[in-house]
Specification:
disordered N terminus, elongated, mainly alpha, 122 residues
Length: 122
């Protein structure tokens, strides 16, 4: 029995070493991503002319759709085994999720405002 416990101890030591090695690799990649993403603040584009509400809404919906499409493409590329960083895939999926949730909240607010307006006495 002591021989088996010695083998199990060696395997757990190897797995802990492997986990620590993976952790170090993840931290290095996170630092590299942070350096790559820290290009400095980006100035917001200044509109040259006022845009309509419909055009602004359409642009926002297009941006959310583009984000979801990008996340899908990155996920599919990762699943096919192409060389895609998992951090990029997860970040794109999270950004798409946040964009979609924000869109739902805006829709809910618009519907609530519409219902309030429709229920006003004339």
């Amino acid at each position: 029995m002591s021989a088996l416990s010695g083998i199990g101890g060696a395997q757990s030591a190897m797995s802990v070493d492997r986990v620590m090695q993976l952790r170090a690799e993840i931290l290095q990649r996170n630092e590299a991503l942070a350096r790559a993403g820290s290009t400095g603040p980006v100035a917001a584009p200044q509109p040259t002319q006022p845009t309509s509400f419909a055009a602004t809404l359409e642009g926002a919906l297009r941006d959310v759709n583009d984000g979801q499409n990008r996340a899908s493409q990155l996920s599919e590329a990762y699943e096919r085994g192409q060389e895609v960083d998992i951090a990029k895939v997860m970040l794109a999926r999270q950004q798409a999720s946040v964009g979609f949730e924000a869109t739902l909240q805006v829709r809910n607010k618009i519907l609530a405002a519409y219902k309030d307006i429709m229920s006003m006495p004339v």
